[in-house]
Design goal:
PA_domain; single chain; alpha/beta; transmembrane
């Protein structure tokens, strides 16, 4: 009877350890797959006439990042800044001084004072072909903009240096044409803080259960050893008596 109890305890302890490992491993895999972000880079090509050299200049770089709700397609047009009265384009009445000869145009707006969604919506209301938001104050960093409800226009974020470069050319009264093309698809997986806490607590609980079974196992083993010693002692006493 004692041997069967000990064997059962040993099996339960081993099973609990294996269950702990498998359970935590599966939880980590599940949460990693469940929480992911898909985003696309964008190639930004700018073309303008350099009055100093008298030649057309073209620069292309994969510096943009499509918005979460943006159309994932190419776009192009003449770059246009919001009116000087509202460079941040936070007012629905913001004007965009689009030249009469420009058929398609792209709004160039700095980040700040209102959401990117508002800026994109205001430019879209003026029939912009695309919107470039440049990330002022964050250097070369870009992020995936969220603009739910504004999903029928190309909207990308570009780094601050590139945005200021284009804005500087426009302020010099140069016609800058922007071409946006789809870049690289990226899939980023991550584990949230809540998931990590949940997995940690689950692991601790399973460890406690496992340790409890181990303690129970050694108690039973100790009791069995004592009982065996008593039986042997009684057996020797009986033989001596006989």
């Amino acid at each position: 009877m004692a041997m069967s109890v000990i064997g059962a305890c040993r099996s339960l302890a081993l099973s609990t350890w294996l269950l702990s490992y498998c359970f935590v491993h599966l939880l980590c895999m599940d949460f990693t797959v469940a929480e992911k972000e898909e985003w696309y880079t964008a190639f930004v090509n700018i073309t303008y006439h350099d009055p100093t050299s008298g030649t057309n200049r073209t620069e292309k770089s994969e510096c943009g990042r499509y918005g979460e709700h943006s159309l994932k397609q190419d776009a192009w047009g003449l770059a246009v800044l919001p009116s000087p009265q509202d460079r941040l384009a936070c007012d629905p009445a913001t004007k965009f001084p689009v030249p009469t000869y420009a058929g398609r145009w792209v709004a160039l707006i700095p980040i700040g004072n209102c959401t990117c969604r508002d800026k994109i919506r205001h430019a879209a209301l003026h029939n912009a072909s695309a919107v470039l938001i440049y990330n002022v104050g964050f250097g070369n960093d870009t992020s995936t903009m969220a603009h739910p409800g504004i999903e029928d226009i190309v909207a990308i974020m570009i780094p601050e240096p590139k945005g200021k470069e284009i804005a500087s050319l426009i302020e010099k009264n140069l016609n800058v044409t922007i071409y946006i093309t789809i870049g690289t698809r990226n899939l980023q997986k991550f584990v949230s803080r809540t998931s990590v806490v949940f997995v940690s607590i689950s692991f601790i609980v399973l460890m406690i259960i496992s340790l409890a079974w181990l303690v129970f196992y050694y108690i039973q083993r100790f009791r069995y050893a004592n009982a065996r010693d008593r039986n042997q002692s009684c057996h020797l006493n009986n033989r001596t008596f006989l």
